[in-house]
Amino acid sequence: VEEVKTNFIFQEIDKDLAAGKNGGQILTRFPPEPNGYLHIGHAKSICLNFGIAKHYKAGCNLRFDDTNPTKEEVEYVDSIQEDIKWLGFEWEGEPKYASDYFEQLYEWAVLLIKKGKAYVCELNAEDIAAQKGTPTTPGKESPYRNRSVEENLDLFARMRAGEFKDGEKILRAKIDMASPNMHMRDPIMYRILHRHHHRSGDQWCIYPMYDFTHGQSDFLEGITHSICTLEFEVHRPLYNWFLDQILEGETPSVRPRQIEFARLNLNYTVMSKRKLLELVQKGIVSGWDDPRMPTISGLRRRGYTPESIRMFADRVGVARRDNVIDIALLEYCVREDLNKKAMRVNAVLNPIKLIITNYPEGQVEMMETVNNPEDESMGQRTIPFSREIYIERDDFMEDAPKKFFRLGPGRQVRLKSAYIIQCDDFKKEADGTISEIYCSYFPDSRSGSDTSGLKVKGTLHWVSAQHAVDAEVRLYDRLFMDEEPDGHKDKDFKEFLNPESLTILPNCKLEPFLANVQPLDNFQFQRLGYFAADKASKPDQLVFNKTVGLRDSWAK
Ligand code: ATP
Ligand code: MG
Ligand code: MG
């Protein structure tokens, strides 16, 4: 298993350890909001947080950041756990939920009110926005800012008791309306939302905001290093301010520290959960695990391995500057991994019948073939050879150019693990399509005992017609045709959808070995690429998804 490369976050942690902070303890957390499935960007954060834990022989918590009841669902909680486990990581103890801290957070909010550091405000969202000021001009103080502690305590209790409607009142921190950091200008701590929560049910009708939740949740769990993406850098003073307020006069044994890193951006894709959800809801993809989705579940169904995703996270590294990673790197990683692991098999995706006219009718020979030339331990198997086989339609040309080292009238090729054949004739239908190819074989050219002396340039894969099993094969192309589909000001990201991102080949012919594959099993279809059995593939209805081609077809 790959080691996480050391990066600036490790250096910061080393410094904290050297300074004796937190009694030498390390605990990280991965804090997803359960409002969608995890995507490849989350995988980077997972590999980083769990990678740190592994490196320091420490733990990493899984905490659901579930403070917004309007968008969260149990389905997401379940899928997130499945995906983290599949990636090969184990969180510390039971999963944690920010919602389990609601009572404690409420008490801390009351504490802030008592300290004169929070107040109930009645401005609506537009008023607040209008009075916020700009980074260079101070904001306007709310007319409710100087309410008495008693009045604030009373109003906040009544907010909790459900006396007010959504949006009627909010609780704000009383910090500094002239701060150069906009997040310090009396940020919202609580809002009223009469909404059912996936865990706390109808117990609450006020919900804490992210900023008032995250640092305190980290503190409650004893998190030492709270690692998040760069956009939270400007929230860090607020993260610390809330901790300062609730910990005033105390010297806790562990105080969490927020450290930011650059989020992963991939070209030719979108990664916001809101946009991914839109693709699902509008039926543009078949679901969160559609093999074209950048979700962990989509990649899994596509045939990606946990190792390939971890390798990708490792290669991308951890930086302090935002950048965009080429999706070709992700494809490279899975190709590398599958090259080592995937069994080589024969599949003909666009079959055309080829008849070996001088091969005895009814005869079947079992041909030996290695399962993976990269890994001897994967052994060998035999594949049946007979008079009628299928080859790829693309491997035959009636008027082939000289450099076409495949089949055409009068040309010779080797059938992989079998014989050299020569094309003698073909059958052309009235509409111009070629329906059958007629060849003769050279009996002394059998692979492994070839004494024919013939030299051929091309080797074709094939499947014996009478032994072949039928399958549907799904080919994928990029879901978006633009490098940055959500980077256009005046255009919706959906305008850049690739209409040809999915091609279904319904009449593929596979070697009989593939009749009994398990869902998600990976293979190399010789000469074609890597393919994985779909999650819904069954012996009598085989379906395969193309994971990636053998080499980067986008390179040129
Ligand atoms: P989205 O914008 O897709 O909704 P999010 O950041 O709101 O993503 P969360 O569920 O809150 O999603 O994220 C959980 C953790 O994963 C956070 O710590 C977040 O910083 C991290 N994360 C999310 N997206 C990326 C990304 N593209 N690269 C690296 N880390 C990410
Ligand atoms: Mg978030
Ligand atoms: Mg989000």
Summed up:
With 556 residues, the protein is of the alpha/beta class.
Please, could you describe this protein's structure?
By secondary structure, the protein is an alpha/beta fold. It folds into 3 domains: 8-266, HUPs (Rossmann fold, 3-Layer(aba) Sandwich), CATH 3.40.50; 273-341 and 471-510 and 517-548, Glutamyl-tRNA Synthetase, domain 2; 352-466, Ribosomal Protein L25, Chain P (Beta Barrel), CATH 2.40.240.10. Helix content is 25%, strand content 23%. It has 12 helices and 27 strands. Strand 18 (412-415) and strand 19 (420-428) form a beta hairpin. Helix 11 (306-316) packs across helix 12. The longest helix has 16 residues, at 40-55. The radius of gyration is 31 Å and the shape is elongated. The mean pLDDT is 96. Residues 33, 273 line the site of one magnesium ion.
Q: Could you say which small molecules are bound to this protein?
A: adenosine-5'-triphosphate, magnesium ion
Give the class-level CATH name of the largest domain: Alpha Beta
The biggest sheet, with number of strands, parallel, antiparallel or mixed sense and barrel status, is: 7 strands, mixed
Helix amount, in percent? 10-25%
Could you say what the CATH topology of the largest domain is called? Rossmann fold
Query: What strand order characterises the main sheet?
Result: 12-25-26-27-23-24-13
Helix-and-strand structural type: alpha/beta
Number of strands: 27
Which radius of gyration do the C-alpha atoms yield? 31 Å
